[in-house]
């Protein structure tokens, strides 16, 4: 069914009577499609339209908003997609899933709340199925742009100028196609010096059909002789006409504020979700970084000063999202020269002396407006190895554990890959090898513990029931150590890689005077940035099996089939032998003692641990019982894990 709900929160007469500083608001919601699933839950999807007043102090933090085009009322307009799922019987809880690069990363067994997703990333293509935003262009503005190219096919004649991972997004057009006004450089490794390529040897052009210098094209670069995948290439140039990407924060704020507090639209149509008493939000990886920045920049206060989200769950998120920047790349992933880790990373007030940035906290602005949410932060091993999680726990100087404020809980899922395995089960050989990596994939799932943490968040918000004490690695407990085999207590595994050299370094940058570092906002005036140093980091220690010991271990980690790591090894190309992004790895146990001794493996074999398949299943049953008793496993999840253990080929004849 197609229909349009026109949501005019303020009529023309009211607008005329309002004081100068108008509140940002939605002007209408268009419901384009309504579907009903097998359970009877109804989903409304479409597009909403809004506007913000650039003169309002609550919006002033949005980069380049003052230069965006305005409508007849002096407002800056935006729009975004949305989907709202209403459960049978309704709910007074709104659960907002922040899309990741436009994708909806929902729990396959969703909780029975009003589920809401909406677009916030204005640089994404408007492909079917993606949640996207349309934001205005600040025409006439220019600035420095950086694009980086790695792991291209050997001999590639030309490459698109794009950013992000997973779903490349176009970078802004150059002011000029004159390569003398731009720079293209290459390097053999992240620590190697940048080597300039002569301006006559490359072009803003497409050489796929026409030999160098190709056909002029502002969206591609062409290199004489083609690109070598053993190198990384860095392009810097002057771009023009930036999108006001920071409006993505306002779009989320305004939609949730209306769904929580709006009654009827100007045409008399009711709020499509009914009465909402509590609003929670969860974001995974990039989306969790979005939530951290959303709180840090003050967007958890709506334009009437009310709290937007009562509770948030930033999951596997270690940075801020580089969205509120001129020519930002919100889909980046902590690579070389990427902003996001320079800002405030901690929930408590901490003086960032190592970088000379003074005191700050992610909660400073919401404390000032009395709009802070309850926070349950969840993450795993890969966030230490690939996403630089360490300073959020022990600061940039690494001297001591940073205390958590009372409204924050932190739970660590040890020995997990980024986001945990979604395949489930107990594969003897691990998950499939991640693309470009050398080790098998890490099969430890964190979904069961994450689901339990989110229900704890709801009980905390709705009932005032405090969650269990935080559980995560600390310096005080001796859990956090240097990223080396010796310091970690890594077992001596013949022929297996070691953790040394797999940590993503925490490089400190100077992006120029236009960059507001603590807020990851403003203008990057120096590209590439000046490298000013490298901060020390810590990672969790391991036991004799090579598995981590702190936090909340999943059932599969309590009944291990091998060593599960938060790091992997890049198999080839640029950076071969270093860490493989933020993919975890797996090194299986031998089946028998004879095989173990022949391989010089100090870890007990599967037979020495469990005896038989039945013994393995019994060990899983016991771990499930322990996990349920501690409140970290739902009944249905426990039954599923036991069934997977029974169906597995572990120690089968």
Description:
Mean pLDDT is 93; it is low at 1-24. Helix content is 18%, strand content 22%. By secondary structure, it is an alpha+beta fold. The strands form 10 sheets. Strands 1, 2, 3, 4, 5, 6, 18, 19, 22 and 23 form a 10-stranded mixed sheet that branches. Strands 7-17-11-12 form a 4-stranded antiparallel sheet, with no helix packed on it. Among the domains are: 1-89 and 97-136 and 241-276, no CATH class; 142-240, no CATH class. A hairpin with a 7-residue loop joins strand 20 (350-351) and strand 21.
Based on the model shown, name its key terms.
alpha+beta; Alpha/beta hydrolase domain-containing protein; ten-stranded mixed sheet; disordered N terminus
* Separate helix tally: 13
Query: What would the average pLDDT be, to the nearest integer?
Result: 93
Q: Estimate the helix proportion, in percent.
A: 10-25%
How is the quaternary structure best described? single chain
β-strand amount: 15-25%
- Low-confidence spans: pLDDT under 50, at least 5 residues? 1-24
Structural class: alpha+beta
Main sheet characteristics: 10 strands, mixed
Overall spatial form:
globular
Spatial extent as radius of gyration: 26 Å
The overall strand count is: 31
Distance between the termini: 56 Å
């Amino acid at each position: 069914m197609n229909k349009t709900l026109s949501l005019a929160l303020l009529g023309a007469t009211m607008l005329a009577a309002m004081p100068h500083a108008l509140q940002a608001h939605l002007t209408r919601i268009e419901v384009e499609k309504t579907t009903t699933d097998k359970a009877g839950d109804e989903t409304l999807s479409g597009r909403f339209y809004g506007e913000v007043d650039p003169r309002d102090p609550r919006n002033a933090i949005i980069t380049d908003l003052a230069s965006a085009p305005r409508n007849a009322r002096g407002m800056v307009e935006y729009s975004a997609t949305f989907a709202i799922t209403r459960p049978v019987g309704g709910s007074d809880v709104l659960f907002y899933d922040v899309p990741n690069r436009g994708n909806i990363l929902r729990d396959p067994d969703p909780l029975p709340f009003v589920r809401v997703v909406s677009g916030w990333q204005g640089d994404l293509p408007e492909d079917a199925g993606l949640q996207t935003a349309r934001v205005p262009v600040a025409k006439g503005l220019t600035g420095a742009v950086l694009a980086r190219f790695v792991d291209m096919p050997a001999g590639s004649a030309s490459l698109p100028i794009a950013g992000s991972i997973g779903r490349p997004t176009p970078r802004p057009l150059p002011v000029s196609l004159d390569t003398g006004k731009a720079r293209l450089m290459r390097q053999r490794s992240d620590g190697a010096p940048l080597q300039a390529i002569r301006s006559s040897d490359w072009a803003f052009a497409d050489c796929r059909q026409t030999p160098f210098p190709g056909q002029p094209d502002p969206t591609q670069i062409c290199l004489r002789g083609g690109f070598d995948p053993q190198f990384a290439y860095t392009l810097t140039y002057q771009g023009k006409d930036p999108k006001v990407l920071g409006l993505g924060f306002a779009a989320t704020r305004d939609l949730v504020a209306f769904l929580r507090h709006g009654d009827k639209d100007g045409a008399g149509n009711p709020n499509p979700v009914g009465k909402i008493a509590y609003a929670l939000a969860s974001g995974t990886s990039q989306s969790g970084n979005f939530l951290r920045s959303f709180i840090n920049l003050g967007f958890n206060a709506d334009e009437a000063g009310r709290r937007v989200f009562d509770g948030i769950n930033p999951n596997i998120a270690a940075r801020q999202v580089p969205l509120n920047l001129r020519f930002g790349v919100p889909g980046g992933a902590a690579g070389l020269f990427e902003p996001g880790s320079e800002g405030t990373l901690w929930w408590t007030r901490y003086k960032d002396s190592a970088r000379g940035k003074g005191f700050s906290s992610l909660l400073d602005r919401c404390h000032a407006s009395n709009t802070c949410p309850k926070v349950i932060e969840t993450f795993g091993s890969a966030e230490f190895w690939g996403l630089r999680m360490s300073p959020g726990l022990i600061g940039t100087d690494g001297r001591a554990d940073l205390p958590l404020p009372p409204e924050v809980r932190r739970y660590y899922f040890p020995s997990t890959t980024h986001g945990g395995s979604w395949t489930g089960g107990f594969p003897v050989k691990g998950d499939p090898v991640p693309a470009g990596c050398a080790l098998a994939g890490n099969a430890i799932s964190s979904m069961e513990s994450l689901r339990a943490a989110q229900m704890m968040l709801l009980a905390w918000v709705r009932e005032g029931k405090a969650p269990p004490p935080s559980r995560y690695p600390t310096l005080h407990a001796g859990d956090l150590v240097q990223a080396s085999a010796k310091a970690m207590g890594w077992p001596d595994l013949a022929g297996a890689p070691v953790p040394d050299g797999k940590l993503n370094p925490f490089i400190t940058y100077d992006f120029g005077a236009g960059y507001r570092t603590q807020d990851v906002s403003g203008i990057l005036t120096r590209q590439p940035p000046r490298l000013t140093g490298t901060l020390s980091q810590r990672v969790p220690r391991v036991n004799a099996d090579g598995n981590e010991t702190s936090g909340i271990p999943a059932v599969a980690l309590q009944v291990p089939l091998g060593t599960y790591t938060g790091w992997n090894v890049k198999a080839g190309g640029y950076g071969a032998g270093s860490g493989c992004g933020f993919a975890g790895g797996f090194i299986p146990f031998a089946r028998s003692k004879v095989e173990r001794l022949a391989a010089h493996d100090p870890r007990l074999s599967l037979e020495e641990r469990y005896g038989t398949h039945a013994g393995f299943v019994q060990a899983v049953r016991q771990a499930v019982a322990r996990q349920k008793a501690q409140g970290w496993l739902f009944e249905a999840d426990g039954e599923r894990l036991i069934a997977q253990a029974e169906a597995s080929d572990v120690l089968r004849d």
